[in-house]
Amino acid sequence: MASPTSLYLSYLSRRSLIHRAAAVTALGLGVGGTATRASAAERTAGPLLDTRALQSAISDLSHPHAISAQLHAFHGRESWYGTAGVADLAGGRAPRPGDRFRAGSVTKAFVATAVLQLWVEGRVELGAPLARYLPGLLPGDFGRRITVAHLLHHTSGLPDHQGIPDTSTPEGVLRHRFDRWTPREWVRTATHGPLKFRPGTKQEYRGINYVLLALLAEEVTGRPYREVIAERILRPLGLARTLTPGQDPRLHGPHVHGYLRMTDGSLEDITVYNTSGSRGEGDLVSTVDDLVRFQQALFSGELLPPEAMDKLCSLPPDDVRMLDGGPARYGMGLQTVTVNGVTFWGKTGEVYGYRTRAFATRDRRLGFVLSYTPTPLTTPEQMVARVATALTS
Question: Pick from 242, 249, 293: which is nearest to 271 by CA?
C-alpha cells in the first residue's frame, strides 16, 4: 500500500484541476422554495425531489417549536432550497442561505478534515500517542494510552467533566453565556479520576476529543487553530462567511437569531453567546450555502484523497460498541445513519437556540443541509426525521 505521503503527492497533482472543475451550487433567496433545473433526461423521468413534502417538513415549526428553518436538499443534479419562519422576531424577515448561524458540532468535521490532511502529509500518525504531540497536557499515563485515532473515533475513554457550569436549565444557560475559557482550562475539567474505559474498546461521543485535536493541529502546524481551519479549508473553498469566533460572542453581518424558552414560557434571544468552551468541537459559525459548498468539496475529494476519506468514514472494529451497547456510529470525523435503506454520512450540530444537520450519501447522489432554530433546551429530532423521510421515501 502506498504511504500517506505518496498518496498526498499524487493527490496534489490533481487538486488544482479539481478546484477549477468544482462549481458552487446556486441557492435561491427568500421565502418558500427554489429548485435548480435538471437535465433533459431527468426532466423526462420526472422530478427526483418531492419539494412539497420537503417544504412541509420544515414548515411545521411546532414539532419541535422553532423560530425558523432552512433546507438545501439535492438528489442527483436536482437541488432545492426552502425556508420557513423568520430570521429574527424583531425584524420578521425570512432566513436567507447567506445568513450566519452557529453550526455547533459540525465543527468536528472541519477539524477532522484538517487533522487527516496532516496525516496525509506525513506530519501526524493516527496510531501515535497524544503525548508525542502534546507532552504533559494530560495527567498520568493518559497521553501515552490515548492515540490520535482514539480521539478521532471518540474511543478515548476520557473522564466526564467536573467543575463546569450548570447549564441544565435555560436560566443556567443565560447565567453562563459569557463565560470565557481557554482550551487548556477546558481540558483540565475532563482529566479528573481514571479513564472510563480502556482506550479503543468502547465508543462515547465526547466533544473534549476534538478540543484536544484542535490543540494538536496547532502544535503540529505552529499556527492558531482558527488559522489552520482558514488556511486549509475556508479560503481554498471560498467560504467567506464561515469562521471560528474565538472569544467574540457576537454574530456579525446578516444572521439568524437563536432563542431559548425559559421555564416561565418566555423567550430569550440567545444569539450573543461565548462559545470558547467548545473551541474545536462546536464553535463554528457558518451559513447554509457555505456548508453545502463544504459538503460537496469533501465528498467529491476536493479536500481529502480517497484513503483519507475512507478514514473519515471508517467505523471502529465491530466489537467496539457504544456505552449503551449499541453499534458504533461515529467515524473519524463523520457519523452515519441509515434511513429507509439509504446510508448517509455527515454531522449534526447543536448550540443553544440552533440545530444543524448536514448529511449526504458517499456517492453524492442524495443529501441535505438543514439549519433550524428550536427554542426548547432539549429538542427531539422530529424535523430532521421528516426531512430524511421525504428525501428517501
Answer: 249
Q: Mean pLDDT, the chain, as a whole number?
A: 91
Tell me: pLDDT of 20 over 80: no
Global pTM reads 0.90
Residue 139 near residue 189, CB atoms below 8 Å: no
| % of the chain beyond a pLDDT of 70 | 88
Alpha carbon distance 104, 357 (integer Å): 10
Going by the DSSP 8-state scheme, the letter that residue 21 receives in this structure is H
pLDDT band at 15 (very low <50, low <70, confident <90, very high): very low
101 burial (CB, 10 Å; 0-12 / 13-18 / 19+) is buried
From the list 97, 155, 84, the residue with the least C-alpha distance to 126 is 155
Residues facing residue 371 across a β-bridge: 70, 356
69 has pLDDT over 60: yes
Q: Residue 208: which of 187, 229, 225, 194 has the closest Cα?
A: 187
For 201, the grid coordinates are: 474498546
Alpha-carbon span 100 to 183, nearest angstrom: 24
C-alpha span between 68 and 269 (Å, rounded): 13
Neighbouring-strand partners of residue 355: 350, 372
Q: At which residue does the C-alpha cell 485515532 appear?
A: 149
Amino acid at 18: I
* Longest CA pairwise span in the chain (Å): 65
* Measured distance CA(343)–CA(327) in Å, rounded: 15
Residues 6+ apart with CB under 8 A from 56: 386, 390
Grid look-up 433545473 returns 37
Of the pLDDT bands very low, low, confident and very high (cuts 50, 70, 90), residue 28 is: very low
Strands 335-339 and 342-351, sheet pairing: antiparallel
Per-residue pLDDT at 36: 52
Instruction: Give the model confidence (pLDDT) of 310-329 as tens digits.
Output: 999 999 999 999 999 999 99
Give the span between the Cα atoms of 129 and 143, in whole angstroms. Answer: 6
